[in-house]
């Protein structure tokens, strides 16, 4: 396993992340699904030590992230759907700063994704559309040859063509041995590319298993994965 999440707990006044556990495997795409407010972003931020869980354990490459944060984060690509740093600097200047932190920075990969995403290095993040900001975050995450790619709603704000393009990139990364973990509420994206599904509802993991097993266990004949999710949420998970 490249990542092991065990019994993560995080309590807020109106929400509890309740003993969240699952694994990520090398060369697998894992879709993290659940409705808005289910705990996807809290889980991801807890995994990366961006917020501090009340209890639980997260390990990457067999090492606890709390004791090995710097080394682990150099081997992980992380992206949210927003860009909040250096909003008025040109993208090429941002890249010149960021690449210094990664011994594994790959200029060839950077220029490949720069062209694929049609990003203009002369622009600033402030000048980008929401969809292009998503692509910029992904560009930076993909350019230092991450062994694990952790993405919070990466397809949010992208048009259908760009979303499909991104899912194809995920598939290629998987073939190269990268573990891809991405949250989404666009269930059709999961149907297209995911090997495994982690399903969270109201702060609890309902299922963490291969997609084929999830469909076999929870879906009924003729249902899409989205139909299954809607039925489970509507009936508060009885399937």
List keywords for this structure.
6-stranded mixed sheet; 10 strands; 239 residues; 26% strand; globular
List strands and helices in order, with pairings:
Elements: E1 3-12, E2 15-24, E3 29-33, H1 40-47, E4 55-60, E5 63-64, H2 69-73, E6 76-79, H3 91-98, H4 107-116, H5 130-142, E7 148-152, H6 160-175, E8 179-184, H7 187-193, E9 196-201, E10 204-210, H8 211-218, H9 225-234
Summarize this entry quickly.
With 239 residues, this protein is α/β, with parallel strands linked by helices. It has nine helices and ten strands. The strands form two sheets. It has a six-stranded mixed β-sheet with strand order 6-7-8-3-9-10, with helices on both faces. A four-stranded antiparallel β-sheet has the order 2-1-4-5, covered by helices on one side.
Plain-language structure description:
- The structure is a single chain.
- This protein has 239 residues and is of the alpha/beta class.
- The protein has helices at 40-47, 69-73, 91-98, 107-116, 130-142, 160-175, 187-193, 211-218, 225-234; strands at residues 3-12, 15-24, 29-33, 55-60, 63-64, 76-79, 148-152, 179-184, 196-201, 204-210.
- The chain is built from nine helices and ten strands.
- A hairpin with a 2-residue loop joins β9 and β10.
- α4 (107-116) runs antiparallel to α5.
